[in-house]
Design goal:
The complex is a heterodimer of chains A (114) and B (343). Chain A is an alpha/beta fold and 114 residues long. Chain A contains 5 helices and 5 strands. Chain A has one domain: Udp-n-acetylmuramoylalanyl-d-glutamate--2,6- Diaminopimelate Ligase, Chain: A, domain 1 (3-Layer(aba) Sandwich). In chain A, helix 2 links the parallel strand 2 and strand 3. Chain B has 15 helices and 10 strands. In chain B, strand 7 and strand 8 form a beta hairpin. In chain B, the strands form 3 sheets. Chain B has a 5-stranded antiparallel beta sheet, covered by helices on one side. The longest helix of chain B has 27 residues. In chain B, helix 11 runs antiparallel to helix 14. Chain B folds into 2 domains: 147 residues, CBS-domain (Roll), CATH 3.10.580.10; 158 residues, 2-Layer Sandwich (Heat Shock Protein 90), CATH 3.30.565.10. The chains are: A alpha/beta (114), B alpha+beta (343). The interface between A and B is medium-sized, with 30 and 33 residues.
Chain lengths: 114, 343
């Protein structure tokens, strides 16, 4: 399982700078829009699925060493957030689909809870 | 940055790629957008003119161990062609070694500029079959040549430099407590947090986490302290009147965190500690805060938590993390060297 595969299979838009995503191997998945829950629930190298698109998701991902954030329902982070993510090495992905569908597809690809 | 492409690359030969080095590989693509062609190109190049013969070319290829030579017009000094080993083979097959270079050189040239980023060269290499690109300056004059090998070497050099810089920083910091003798040494980090400054939210906790890693803390400990301080930081941003301050005191065997604000304070401390209880406004909740889990998360991440608050006066939050065994700063570091602490 690598991020490149996830991006392709789920048809995700890459919002931050391009990288060699095949080298990034997420270990778990987590879904929540409440940041404090993510703080407790998301393991290291998780993919986090959320509706939130504001700047603070970058700080959370950086602190928890998350592999990537998938922003659902086409929520758009502003330019500052994307710039901050690039600066901190956090990967932002986006999709029109909702969190439930994305979580289902990640599970089918073999990504599980920690 | 040095210009000779060969010096550092040799140091990577026969070198075991450690996890830390491998972690840097994802940085390669980033570097391709940061490094410019002139940072990695070969500058000292041998050129020929269109009227030199293919035999002259053979001599240059042999003498300089290169596989291609740019052709410069004698009078205008402009780049007019490129001739490679392949062209020489074609010429020899025709038994035509005395022919002038102009009858064999490629004139349909793909070039890059000194100020282009490496990605530009990478794109051109992948789109065409050429093995080298002439590099032109602003005035369209030939100043160098770039090959895929130059790019690899340039990126390796840049990675090695960054890697060493981080290692040096980490080494110096991790010896802090061993090098400085006193009856009780501690390092105090102070951060001021402004009310409602969501843009900077997480900055203090990220910086503290990085500081701990540099001091030699393992990833687990740094993460735990980072989470606790993030929640405290967000509380200052969301719930105070004038913001507040965070002091982190790092000692070899313990980390103490003091979070202060001057109001408004917590009306019911017991209730505030209940999982799920929050006084956050609707606006803040929409940002994903106010789950009522902040203080609960903090207490889970630390060994001791003390919350003192008076309505109208302010709140003091004190956190203690006790370090045992290899987590002890100074002593633990030696044993951990070689492990990948930051992930």
């Amino acid at each position: 399982m690598n991020l490149d595969l996830i991006i392709n299979k789920l048809n995700l838009k890459v919002l931050t700078d391009n990288k060699d995503f095949s080298q990034i191997q997420p270990s778990h998945g987590y879904v929540s829009d409440m940041l404090s829950c993510v703080m407790t629930g998301a393991g290291q190298h998780s993919v986090w699925v959320t509706l939130q698109a504001h700047g603070n998701i970058v700080a959370v991902a950086r602190l928890l060493d998350l592999s990537a954030i998938i922003i659902t329902e086409d929520a758009q982070p502003d330019e500052k957030t994307i710039a901050k993510a690039n600066e901190e090495g956090v990967i932002l992905l986006s999709t029109e689909e909702n969190s439930f569908n994305i979580a289902g597809k990640l599970w089918e690809l073999g990504l599980k809870d920690k | 940055m040095a210009n000779s492409p060969s010096d550092n690359s040799r140091r990577f030969q026969n070198k075991v790629i450690t996890d830390e080095l491998a972690g840097n590989i994802t940085r390669v693509e980033e570097l391709a957008y940061i490094l410019q062609i002139e940072d990695v190109m070969t500058r000292d190049i041998k050129t020929l003119t269109p009227d030199n013969t293919m035999l002259d070319l053979l001599e240059v290829l042999k003498q300089y161990h290169v596989s291609g030579v740019p052709i410069i017009d004698d009078s205008t000094k402009e780049l007019v062609g490129l001739v490679s080993t392949e062209d020489l083979i074609k010429c020899l097959a025709n038994d035509d070694a005395k022919a002038p270079i102009k009858s064999y050189m490629a004139t349909d040239l793909i070039t890059v500029k000194t100020y282009d980023f490496l990605t530009e060269a990478l794109k051109k290499f992948s789109r065409t079959k050429v093995g080298r690109l002439p590099v032109l300056d602003k005035e369209e004059k030939l100043v160098g040549i770039i090959t895929k090998g130059d790019i690899t070497n340039g990126i390796l050099r840049a990675l090695e430099k960054e890697y060493q810089e981080e290692e040096v920083r980490r080494y110096r910091a991790s010896h802090l407590f061993e090098d400085i003798e006193s009856d009780r040494s501690s390092l105090i980090l102070r951060y001021n947090i402004a009310h409602y400054d969501f843009t900077s939210g997480g900055k203090a906790s990220s910086n503290i986490k990085r500081a701990l890693l540099r001091l030699g803390a393992n990833a687990q400990l740094a993460r735990r302290v980072g989470i606790a301080i993030y929640e405290a930081e967000m509380n200052l941003i969301i719930h105070t009147s004038n913001g507040g301050s965070i002091h982190v005191e790092i000692e070899p065997t313990q980390i103490s965190v003091y979070v202060w604000d001057n109001g408004p304070g917590i009306e019911d401390v017991e209730l505030a500690l209940k999982p799920g209880y929050s006084t956050a406004t609707e606006e803040v909740r929409e940002l994903g805060f106010g789950a009522g889990m902040g203080l609960v998360n903090i207490s889970r991440c630390v060994d001791e938590m003390d919350l003192q608050s008076e309505w109208g006066t302010g709140t003091h939050l004190t956190l203690k993390i006790y370090l045992k065994g290899e987590d002890i700063f100074g002593e633990g570091y030696q044993k951990r060297q070689g492990e990948d602490n930051e992930s």
